[in-house]
Each structure stands twice: as structure tokens, then as C-alpha cells.
């Protein structure tokens, strides 16, 4: 989706031609897999973080074009909303001091972006959903002025044929409508990429699906939307509803949403690409001149651009990615479940936990997905989003048959942190770095504090001090931003506001 797309309409033949090209791309992918043309193991990872722009008052600022022009770096790009940015960290090899190296690169990049944003009267806030966003902020007029976002919005709106309904019931309830996909821009996340060989892809993807709920539970950071306290991680239900091309009748028929957890464990990367073609009509039927099968016949490597473009409009929480670098194709698992923030240390801790855990689980003799029904993994994901670090999840009993329900903090401390440590050892991560970042996860679980719980507790402290709801949300956002810039992990943050007795 990162390509420049010229806005315009499509005629009746475009989707048919695009569908034929998609089938050619899928056949090309099958040939590449059969011929073992993919890159050798390189242990490469990548990191992207979506960011918010907010003023000193904690309110959103619609100034990303101005800020990006001041930053003037290809590492920073637009995102859907005018109050969004995205920072991309170049791929790194998973070994040695890579965790500390990533942390330093992020601190340097975000510090520079913060200085440039301040010139435009704004600041960088790394958070899952900015608590001060209002319904009037998330409208089509505030979509970034980029052709691809305009076209994507037009196509999703046309496919749905009516307003989008946002209906989320958690601590409080939210019910409203939107005439565009702009509410999706409230969701700012971390994307963790891992390059894998075709032979290992299914094991890594299945492992990532199995632990998605655990990631969300310990990393939740999005409890508010439009002034309402909803789920501890409100991004997934918001993202699903804000991109839902299905009117009620199609939902009743069981048509799958475009934001999708999935419905089964897989045996290969091909399974996921094939499902994306089988279940989802094209939103952006833009055809490339490349003939992928002819390129293969000539000994080349096709870009499979239609497949890549279509794949980018199916919002799996763990997405398969096909790419070509220096003429060599590769596959990646893109993990999309985590919210941004709260601090660089927390982001790297979440990454360390994920990369260690999927490595260990993917190499188990009796993998967790052979013992955990997929439906249980899906239920776990919803439960984790609702309750965050207080969630209780279904998980296979260690050493015995069957599945039991266990508090996520106990599951993480007793079983998953040792596995994550073993996985990081297998990546040859420096032991001191391993212990530092996994220690942050352990302390979150010991104290039962993450970004979402801190936000909610601080908001309620502000309300108890007599602040109106909007003022309490703004005060919480301002305090969050101060502590984020200090850089201490969120489990060490004091609830409330200094100098107010609480």
C-alpha cells in the first residue's frame, strides 16, 4: 500500500482483469515455493511504529504534512490521519546487542521528530489511541492528503454502501456512525516483521497467532475512544468496524470481515495468500504491466504487485508478506497486534518478548497449536483486548492433556517468559539485553500495570479530583506524554498527577 496511487475511478472490466492477474500472481507464488527460490535464512527483523501528533494541551494536531516536511527523512512517512506519522526502522539481524541498538535508534529518531514537530506547534505521542480524539477529529476532511488514502476510503465506502457503525461495549459503551474510514486512523500500532523461510513460515505464523492474545494482554495501551472508557485494547474492535465493508445482511451470512484474526492454523504461506484471494473482492484493482509467469519462464523474479497490493487491503493481525530485495524473493510474518508505546523501552520489551516467544514455540516438538483449538486462540484474543493484563486465557496444560484457563500474568511469568528467554538465546541475543527487556514484561505482570491500566487509573484519579471528563482525558494525555518522554517503563509510572496529592 506504500506505492503512490493516482486517484481515479474503475470501470466494469478492471476488477475482472485484476482478478485474473491475482490468479497469475498466486500461480507464480506457487512456482516460486515449489522451485525453492526464496532467500536463505538471515534472521532479519524490522520495526514500524505509528505515532500521534498532539499539542501541549494534549489535543490532536492535524499537521503531519508540515511536520514531515520539517523532518525531511524517508524513515518517517504519512499515515491515514493528518495527526498520524509512521517511523520505519531499517531491518536488523536478530543477534547480539540488537535490542539496545534498536532502542537507541528509536530514541534518536523520535527525539529528532519531536524537535521538528515542536516547530509546528505539536509533539509526538506514542500511544494506541489518543484519549483526546473526538468524533469531529475523525472525519474524511482530516484524512492525509495522499491519493492512496482517498482512493482506499472511496472504495471501502462504496463497497459498504452505507455509513459505518461503531458499537463497542466495555467499561462504558460507545455507539456512533461515520461516513468514512477516518476512525481507523485513531488506531496507532507497532508492526514487528520477521523474515522466514517458506519451510518455517507456517510454524512461525501459527506461533504468532497463538500468542497474539498474550501480546495484547501485557501490552494493552488503548482504553479510551471518543471520551469513553471501552476495552483495555480498543484498537481491534475499532479497526474491524471502521474498515467493515459488510452491511448487516452480509454479516448475517457469515461473510468474513476485512480485519480478520483468521479461522484455522495453516500449513504454508500459500494458504494465507490463497484465502485472501478466495474470500476478499479487490478494493484497488490497479494492474501492473508485469506478466509474472513469463518473468518466471525467463528466469526472473516477479514482483507479484497485484498480490502484494491486495494483501495490503486484508488486515490480518498476523499478515503474510511477500517482498523482493536485490532480485531475491523473501517471506515475512508481519505481527500487527500491538499498540504503540508507552515508551521506547516498553516497545523494545514487547518486541523481545515476541521474537523470543515465537522462536521457542515454533521449534517445540509438540507445538502449542497442536494442543490449542484455533477457536480458543480467537476467544483469547477478544478476551485479552477486553481485559488487558487482568485477562484469563485458555492454554494447554503443561505436561498433561486438555486446556485450562489461567490468569495471563501467571501464564507469562511461569511458562512464557522462560520460553521467550530460550528463544532469545537461540537468536544469540546478548544475555544482559535479554534479561533487561524481558524483565520489563515480568515487572508489568508482577505489578499488574501496563499502559492501559495506567491511563484508566490516572483518568479516574483526575475525575475524583473534580475534573470534568474532557479535562480529565486531556490531563491524562499530558501526563502520559511527560512520562513517555522521560523514558521510564510504564510499570514504574506513578498514577495521578504530581503536586495534587494524587
Q: Could you report the average pLDDT, rounded to the nearest whole number?
A: 95
Approximately what portion of the residues adopt beta-strand conformation?
15-25%
Instruction: Give the beta-strand count.
Output: 15
Shape verdict: globular
Count of discrete alpha- or pi-helical segments spanning 4 or more residues: 16
Give the CA-CA distance, first to last residue.
46 Å
How would you describe this structure to a colleague?
This protein is α+β, with helices and mostly antiparallel strands and 502 residues long. Helix content is 45%, strand content 17%. It has helices spanning 12-34, 64-71, 98-119, 147-160, 198-219, 235-242, 248-252, 269-279, 292-297, 305-311, 344-362, 374-387, 408-426, 431-447, 451-464, 469-486, and strands at 44-54, 76-78, 84-93, 123-125, 164-169, 173-178, 189-196, 224-225, 228-229, 259-260, 315-316, 318-325, 328-339, 392-396, 403-407. It is globular. The relative contact order is 0.15.
Amino acid at each position: 500500500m506504500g506505492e503512490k496511487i493516482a486517484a481515479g475511478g474503475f470501470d466494469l472490466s478492471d476488477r475482472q482483469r485484476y482478478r485474473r492477474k491475482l490468479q497469475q500472481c498466486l500461480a507464480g507464488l506457487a512456482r516460486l515455493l515449489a522451485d525453492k527460490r526464496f532467500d536463505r535464512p538471515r534472521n532479519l527483523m524490522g520495526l514500524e511504529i505509528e505515532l500521534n501528533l498532539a499539542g501541549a494541551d494534549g489535543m490532536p494536531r492535524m499537521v503531519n504534512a508540515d511536520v514531515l516536511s520539517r523532518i525531511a527523512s524517508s524513515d518517517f512517512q504519512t499515515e491515514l490521519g493528518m495527526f498520524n506519522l509512521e517511523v520505519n526502522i531499517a531491518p536488523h539481524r536478530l543477534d547480539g546487542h540488537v535490542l539496545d541498538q534498536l532502542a537507541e535508534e528509536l530514541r534518536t529518531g523520535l527525539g529528532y521528530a519531536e524537535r521538528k514537530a515542536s516547530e509546528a506547534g505539536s509533539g509526538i505521542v506514542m500511544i494506541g489511541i489518543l484519549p483526546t480524539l473526538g468524533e469531529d477529529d475523525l472525519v474524511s476532511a482530516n484524512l492525509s492528503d495522499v491519493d492512496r488514502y482517498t482512493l482506499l476510503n472511496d472504495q471501502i465506502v462504496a463497497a459498504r454502501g452505507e455509513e459505518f457503525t461503531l458499537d463497542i461495549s466495555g467499561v462504558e459503551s460507545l455507539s456512533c456512525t461515520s461516513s468514512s474510514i477516518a476512525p481507523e486512523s485513531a488506531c496507532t500500532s507497532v508492526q514487528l516483521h520477521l523474515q522466514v523461510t517458506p519451510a518455517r513460515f507456517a510454524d512461525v505464523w501459527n506461533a504468532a497467532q497463538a500468542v497474539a492474545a498474550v501480546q495484547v494482554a501485557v501490552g494493552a495501551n488503548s482504553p479510551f475512544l471518543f471520551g469513553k472508557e471501552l476495552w483495555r485494547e480498543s484498537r481491534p474492535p475499532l479497526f474491524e468496524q471502521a474498515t467493515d465493508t459488510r452491511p448487516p445482511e452480509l454479516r448475517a451470512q457469515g461473510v468474513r470481515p476485512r480485519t480478520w484474526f483468521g479461522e484455522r492454523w495453516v500449513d504454508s504461506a500459500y494458504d494465507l495468500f490463497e484465502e485472501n484471494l478466495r474470500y476478499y473482492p479487490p478494493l484497488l484493482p490497479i494492474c501492473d504491466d508485469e506478466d509474472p509467469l513469463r518473468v518466471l519462464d525467463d528466469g526472473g523474479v516477479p514482483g507479484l504487485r497485484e498480490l502484494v497490493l491486495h494483501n495490503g487491503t486484508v488486515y490480518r493481525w498476523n499478515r503474510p508478506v511477500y517482498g523482493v530485495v536485490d532480485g531475491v524473493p523473501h517471506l515475512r510474518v508481519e505481527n500487527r497486534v500491538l499498540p504503540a508505546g508507552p515508551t521506547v523501552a516498553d516497545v523494545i520489551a514487547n518486541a523481545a518478548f515476541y521474537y523470543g516467544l515465537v522462536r521457542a514455540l515454533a521449534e517445540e516438538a509438540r507445538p502449542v497449536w497442536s494442543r490449542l483449538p484455533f477457536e480458543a486462540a480467537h476467544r483469547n484474543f477478544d478476551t485479552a483486548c477486553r481485559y488487558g493484563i487482568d485477562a484469563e486465557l485458555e492454554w494447554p496444560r503443561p505436561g498433561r492433556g486438555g486446556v485450562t484457563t489461567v490468569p495471563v500474568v501467571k501464564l507469562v511469568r511461569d511458562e512464557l517468559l522462560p520460553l521467550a528467554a530460550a528463544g532469545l538465546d537461540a537468536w544469540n541475543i546478548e544475555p544482559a539485553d535479554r534479561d533487561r527487556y524481558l524483565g520489563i514484561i515480568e515487572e508489568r505482570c508482577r505489578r499488574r500495570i501496563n499502559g492501559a491500566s495506567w491511563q484508566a487509573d490516572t483518568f479516574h484519579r483526575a475525575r475524583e479530583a473534580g475534573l470534568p471528563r474532557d479535562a480529565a482525558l486531556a490531563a491524562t494525555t499530558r501526563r502520559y506524554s511527560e512520562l513517555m518522554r522521560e523514558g521510564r517503563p510504564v510499570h514504574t509510572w506513578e498514577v495521578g498527577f504530581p503536586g495534587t496529592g494524587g
